[in-house]
Amino acid sequence: MKTLVIISHPTIKDSYTQSFLHDAQADFNDVTWHPLDILYPDFKINIKHEQQLLMHYDRIIFQFPLFWYSAPALLKKWEDDVLVRKFANAAHGGYLRHKQLGMVITLGVPAKNYQPGAGEHFSLSELLTPYQALAKKAGMQYLSPFIISQFFYKTPPQEAKTLVDYQNYLTNPKPFGLKNKIKWSLDQLKQYAPKDKVKKIVFDSVIKQIQKNQNQLDDLKSQINMIKRKDDQ
Amino acid sequence: MKTLVIISHPTIKDSYTQSFLHDAQADFNDVTWHPLDILYPDFKINIKHEQQLLMHYDRIIFQFPLFWYSAPALLKKWEDDVLVRKFANAAHGGYLRHKQLGMVITLGVPAKNYQPGAGEHFSLSELLTPYQALAKKAGMQYLSPFIISQFFYKTPPQEAKTLVDYQNYLTNPKPFGLKNKIKWSLDQLKQYAPKDKVKKIVFDSVIKQIQKNQNQLDDLKSQINMIKRKDDQ
């Protein structure tokens, strides 16, 4: 499975979060980092090139900080220019059908602020409806967004968890659900030898997750056994 | 009350709808037509100028065709550049507090397509949530959007109704509700003498609307009288 990460961030070069995410995906051959602000600082998109590029990927990711409750303008320009009707609309035999659309959203405020009664008043599901509608129109599978809030305040263990979850979101063919995550984690393990720093973080986190999951599985199994024993009595 | 109409439409010069709307507002001294694509074709916004401009208006209108379920990229660029935190956030003492935000949205498909089970699957209320959230954050009053769908297919009477309703949306301090519309219509009447073509259309439509409203009022009055008579018996 090949993944294209389309990043829109006007000050991407100064962003600690984006630099961290960049490093997190750098070792994956099947992931392509595609920073629009570096490629098209003048807002003049190479439409044919972008359309050709999209054809080669199974999972398209829109990655951006939330600006006025949606993507920065450059990603919108990319949408308006590249996703023309004949290319993108499923009803017109579009080229994006059966691909996946993922969203990696970075927030400056806590994610819990995005709900009625809290600071931002609206949920992220409500605010991101236009992207869900885009996926629907293009015949794409919309993936639940991956939200990174207040990355700056994260502790090293929280950073490590974000790194692994982000890699899972980008590269796991089935990124959701405990069983799928375990399978992906074990696949990662097989490839990794804990030499450099980033890999060491991943290694430790994956081991921890597997252990945690294993505990949960064991717990569930023993509960099922108890129920079975009761039924047998 | 002063109104600023901020238009975002990449081919505004070729748009019959935008040309029609332009003519519809041309006679109103308190309405300013502000076409971003003509002012900023290179996406380089004069931020200070735009901020200064906004200060002079009570009602700000975002007017655009729906592109991928939101405004074309240039309006997003305008939002990202002009509405910086210190200028726009109500919590930071923003300059837009107590102003109104209106939306004039043109659609290429019928408005009824925007609902679950129909062609576009999502409602316009859902899709436009980011603008509602923007208004909330800026301390602005969000006006129910004014939707113009498939303008090209409208008959002359439908065009005339759109023209009057659009003028009402732009210039009526209280644009919603029968009573407010009648008051506004009468105000228009006082100013108009049916000389040129556009004014003639307005004149006839307003007269028709007042007559229709008057009929409804009379109908309601007679119903109330009937109820009263029953109570007296």
UniProtKB/TrEMBL annotation, chains A, B:
<dbReference type="Pfam" id="PF02525">
    <property type="entry name" value="Flavodoxin_2"/>
</dbReference>
<feature type="coiled-coil region">
    <location>
        <begin position="203"/>
        <end position="230"/>
    </location>
</feature>
<feature type="domain" description="Flavodoxin-like fold">
    <location>
        <begin position="1"/>
        <end position="162"/>
    </location>
</feature>
<dbReference type="GO" id="GO:0009055">
    <property type="term" value="F:electron transfer activity"/>
</dbReference>
<dbReference type="GO" id="GO:0003955">
    <property type="term" value="F:NAD(P)H dehydrogenase (quinone) activity"/>
</dbReference>
<protein>
    <submittedName>
        <fullName>Flavodoxin family protein</fullName>
    </submittedName>
</protein>
<keyword id="KW-0175">Coiled coil</keyword>
<dbReference type="InterPro" id="IPR046980">
    <property type="entry name" value="KefG/KefF"/>
</dbReference>
<dbReference type="InterPro" id="IPR003680">
    <property type="entry name" value="Flavodoxin_fold"/>
</dbReference>
<dbReference type="GO" id="GO:0010181">
    <property type="term" value="F:FMN binding"/>
</dbReference>
<keyword id="KW-0560">Oxidoreductase</keyword>
<dbReference type="InterPro" id="IPR029039">
    <property type="entry name" value="Flavoprotein-like_sf"/>
</dbReference>
